[in-house]
């Protein structure tokens, strides 16, 4: 899809001039919002990251001090590491599970109501999700722990340092599964059914068809969803804030939580902005890859 | 050998608005599916059943806990239904009980008013969905249909907004709203999102580009101005995609947490997600008020569940349509 305007044709030329003012008028509301809440804040954020701004003072220029501090900040490094861990496992495992789910939606021809029920966890705010799972996994009364011990397994706990991250990852995957599966399913509906009919006449099994027909054909959708969910998981915040009643253990203290704590707990807006900028650069790189993936796909289509 | 055709990443409008071929075949497909049932398919059906159970059971447990008297939570903890169901947990989070009654029912006595928080959230999500979508539709129409210098450059600028993560603009926007004295006000709560969403502009522009131009051109020759063509022709024709965009926006704003947490955390403006967080923070860590928390969570989930029941089909198809975000 070209980004540019259409070539003016002779019949439209007379109204060109009037269109310019109308275009401007239609653009005003969106432009105002974009300039005030997107563009100017982006510049201010860069400026804050070079200051000692703490909400109460006039921001004072301190050069690259915030960035120097960031390089030596063990908590920040740990948070980033924890976040990468979360992103990696939730994207890899989440994508695999969603693909299988989408394949079942497609091959078993699941009804729309089944598909929409699977979407329920995605519609619910993470705050409620975190509360529900904190209750299910409660040490004394949690129902899931009750089930686990009933079949002879040890219970699990949010506060066990080695279990905390896997639990958060599992909850994250659980809440996004229906959504990503539906996106994959949307891609799969584009695959002509004749291909599967041909496949089954040739005696191919479902597994074989999944790997030889479905996967190669929806590869662009997979690429898009992977980058998208990576960006989404980078911003994980409410799950850990609520799951731990406001005080997550180090094993799950993500970078978003740390920026939030620095900026609104310790009021160090300058340092928080510096971390946000670094995170923005990482996320920007990921999004750029996503954009490229999308555009590359579009050119395939023509 | 099968040569793979190209796969449409962002399915075109027509594809998405029609049902999938599998469904439109109706009953015969079920019969055929049954006839073809193999052990493998049986396993797959079992997996689907398990998946549904895993997706829905936590919400059942939330509701079940919400109806359990706090005093019976320990004895009842492993039963699938409460022995003595009660409305008291809902009554106290809705602010319908006195402090003494709340404390007697296992609460902390902190004031809770989930009626107000629900109303606040409805206003938050509703106002943004309506105004933002309209404002973005206007801009998208401009980009899709009108010729003016800098059209593509300006559109590219809006698209670049997709590259900016929320946290990056959140800090300076907070400082701005604070210096305007708008913290804990509705205008501060909705200001950053009310006018623009780069994704909405992108999404609606794609749709407007797919509409035929001929009708509009005929109208233009008849002297209908740009505004007439947009508000009286294009916008009414685009009811479906515009509604879809509003739906996506409502869900997104309903789940929003960080901005309302920092910008509007007073009793008058608090939204459901923030109210839940605050309720949890007030509940003692050693023995959380689980029945109250689950009642409050249920109140947060009910509107979403209604949305799913009423508009589930459209929601599922709109995801097909957006194919992305």
Automatic annotation (TrEMBL), chain A:
<keyword id="KW-1133">Transmembrane helix</keyword>
<feature type="transmembrane region" description="Helical">
    <location>
        <begin position="266"/>
        <end position="289"/>
    </location>
</feature>
<feature type="transmembrane region" description="Helical">
    <location>
        <begin position="117"/>
        <end position="137"/>
    </location>
</feature>
<dbReference type="Pfam" id="PF00528">
    <property type="entry name" value="BPD_transp_1"/>
</dbReference>
<dbReference type="GO" id="GO:0055085">
    <property type="term" value="P:transmembrane transport"/>
</dbReference>
<keyword id="KW-0812">Transmembrane</keyword>
<feature type="transmembrane region" description="Helical">
    <location>
        <begin position="209"/>
        <end position="232"/>
    </location>
</feature>
<dbReference type="InterPro" id="IPR051393">
    <property type="entry name" value="ABC_transporter_permease"/>
</dbReference>
<keyword id="KW-0813">Transport</keyword>
<keyword id="KW-0472">Membrane</keyword>
<dbReference type="InterPro" id="IPR000515">
    <property type="entry name" value="MetI-like"/>
</dbReference>
<feature type="transmembrane region" description="Helical">
    <location>
        <begin position="21"/>
        <end position="40"/>
    </location>
</feature>
<dbReference type="InterPro" id="IPR035906">
    <property type="entry name" value="MetI-like_sf"/>
</dbReference>
<feature type="transmembrane region" description="Helical">
    <location>
        <begin position="168"/>
        <end position="189"/>
    </location>
</feature>
<dbReference type="GO" id="GO:0005886">
    <property type="term" value="C:plasma membrane"/>
</dbReference>
<keyword id="KW-1003">Cell membrane</keyword>
<feature type="domain" description="ABC transmembrane type-1">
    <location>
        <begin position="76"/>
        <end position="290"/>
    </location>
</feature>
<protein>
    <submittedName>
        <fullName>N-Acetyl-D-glucosamine ABC transport system, permease protein 1</fullName>
    </submittedName>
</protein>
<feature type="transmembrane region" description="Helical">
    <location>
        <begin position="80"/>
        <end position="105"/>
    </location>
</feature>
<comment type="similarity">
    <text>Belongs to the binding-protein-dependent transport system permease family.</text>
</comment>
TrEMBL record, chain B:
<dbReference type="InterPro" id="IPR035906">
    <property type="entry name" value="MetI-like_sf"/>
</dbReference>
<keyword id="KW-1133">Transmembrane helix</keyword>
<feature type="transmembrane region" description="Helical">
    <location>
        <begin position="186"/>
        <end position="204"/>
    </location>
</feature>
<feature type="transmembrane region" description="Helical">
    <location>
        <begin position="122"/>
        <end position="141"/>
    </location>
</feature>
<keyword id="KW-0472">Membrane</keyword>
<feature type="compositionally biased region" description="Polar residues">
    <location>
        <begin position="11"/>
        <end position="21"/>
    </location>
</feature>
<dbReference type="Pfam" id="PF00528">
    <property type="entry name" value="BPD_transp_1"/>
</dbReference>
<keyword id="KW-1003">Cell membrane</keyword>
<dbReference type="GO" id="GO:0005886">
    <property type="term" value="C:plasma membrane"/>
</dbReference>
<feature type="transmembrane region" description="Helical">
    <location>
        <begin position="153"/>
        <end position="174"/>
    </location>
</feature>
<feature type="domain" description="ABC transmembrane type-1">
    <location>
        <begin position="118"/>
        <end position="311"/>
    </location>
</feature>
<dbReference type="InterPro" id="IPR000515">
    <property type="entry name" value="MetI-like"/>
</dbReference>
<feature type="transmembrane region" description="Helical">
    <location>
        <begin position="290"/>
        <end position="311"/>
    </location>
</feature>
<protein>
    <submittedName>
        <fullName>N-Acetyl-D-glucosamine ABC transport system, permease protein 2</fullName>
    </submittedName>
</protein>
<keyword id="KW-0813">Transport</keyword>
<feature type="region of interest" description="Disordered">
    <location>
        <begin position="1"/>
        <end position="22"/>
    </location>
</feature>
<feature type="transmembrane region" description="Helical">
    <location>
        <begin position="42"/>
        <end position="63"/>
    </location>
</feature>
<feature type="transmembrane region" description="Helical">
    <location>
        <begin position="242"/>
        <end position="262"/>
    </location>
</feature>
<keyword id="KW-0812">Transmembrane</keyword>
<dbReference type="GO" id="GO:0055085">
    <property type="term" value="P:transmembrane transport"/>
</dbReference>
<comment type="similarity">
    <text>Belongs to the binding-protein-dependent transport system permease family.</text>
</comment>
């Amino acid at each position: 899809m070209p980004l540019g305007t259409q070539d003016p044709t002779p019949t439209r030329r007379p109204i060109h001039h009037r269109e310019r003012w109308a275009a401007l008028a239609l653009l005003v509301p969106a432009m105002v919002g974009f300039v005030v809440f997107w563009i100017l804040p982006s510049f201010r954020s860069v400026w804050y990251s070079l200051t000692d701004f703490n909400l109460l003072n006039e921001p004072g220029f301190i050069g690259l001090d915030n960035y120097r501090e960031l390089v030596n900040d063990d908590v920040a490094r740990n948070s980033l590491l924890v976040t990468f861990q979360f992103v990696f496992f939730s994207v890899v495992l989440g994508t695999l599970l969603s693909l299988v789910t989408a394949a079942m939606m497609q091959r078993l021809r699941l009804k729309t109501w089944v598909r929409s029920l699977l979407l329920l966890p995605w519609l619910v705010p993470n705050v409620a999700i975190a509360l529900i799972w904190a209750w299910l996994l409660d040490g004394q009364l949690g129902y899931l722990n009750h089930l686990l011990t009933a079949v002879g397994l040890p219970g699990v706990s949010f506060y066990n340092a080695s279990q905390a991250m896997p639990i958060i990852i599992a909850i994250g995957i659980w809440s996004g599964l229906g959504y990503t599966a539906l996106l994959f399913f949307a891609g799969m509906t584009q695959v002509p059914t004749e291909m599967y009919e041909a496949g089954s006449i040739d005696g191919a099994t479902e597994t074989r068809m999944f790997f030889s027909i479905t996967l190669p054909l929806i590869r662009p959708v997979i690429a898009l969803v992977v980058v998208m969910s990576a960006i989404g998981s980078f911003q994980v915040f409410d799950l850990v804030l609520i799951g731990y009643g406001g005080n997550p253990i180090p094993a799950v203290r993500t970078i978003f939580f740390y920026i939030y704590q620095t900026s609104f707990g310790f009021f160090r807006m300058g340092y928080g902005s510096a971390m946000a900028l670094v995170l923005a650069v990482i996320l920007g790189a990921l999004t750029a890859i996503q954009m490229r993936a999308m555009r590359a796909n579009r050119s395939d289509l023509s | 050998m099968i040569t793979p055709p190209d796969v449409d990443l962002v399915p075109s409008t027509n594809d998405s608005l029609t049902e999938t071929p599998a469904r439109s075949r109706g009953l015969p497909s079920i019969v055929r599916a049954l006839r073809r049932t193999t052990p493998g398919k049986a396993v797959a059906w079992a997996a689907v059943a398990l998946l549904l159970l895993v997706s829905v059971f936590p919400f059942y447990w939330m509701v079940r806990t919400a109806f359990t008297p706090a005093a019976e939570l320990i004895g009842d903890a492993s039963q699938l239904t409460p022995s003595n169901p009660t409305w008291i947990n809902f009554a106290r989070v809705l602010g319908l009980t006195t402090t003494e009654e709340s404390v007697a029912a296992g609460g902390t006595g902190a004031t809770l008013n989930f009626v107000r928080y629900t109303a606040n959230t409805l206003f938050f999500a509703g106002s943004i969905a309506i105004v933002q979508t309209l404002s973005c539709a206007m801009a998208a129409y401009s980009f899709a249909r009108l010729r003016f210098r800098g059209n593509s450059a300006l559109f590219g600028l809006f698209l670049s907004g997709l590259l900016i993560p929320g946290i990056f603009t959140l800090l300076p926007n907070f400082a701005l709203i604070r210096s305007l004295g708008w913290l804990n006000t509705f205008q501060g709560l909705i200001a950053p999102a009310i006018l623009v969403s780069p994704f909405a502009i992108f999404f609606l522009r794609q749709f407007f580009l797919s509409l035929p131009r001929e009708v509009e051109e005929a109208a233009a020759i008849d002297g209908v101005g740009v505004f007439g063509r947009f508000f009286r022709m294009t916008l009414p024709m685009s009811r479906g995609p515009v509604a879809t965009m509003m739906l996506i926006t409502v869900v997104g704003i309903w789940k929003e947490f960080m901005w309302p947490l920092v910008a509007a955390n007073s009793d008058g403006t608090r939204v459901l997600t923030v109210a839940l967080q605050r309720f949890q923070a007030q509940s003692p860590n050693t023995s959380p008020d689980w029945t109250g928390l689950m009642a409050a969570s249920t109140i947060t989930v009910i509107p979403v569940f209604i949305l799913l029941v009423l508009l589930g089909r459209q929601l599922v198809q709109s995801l097909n349509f957006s194919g992305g975000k």
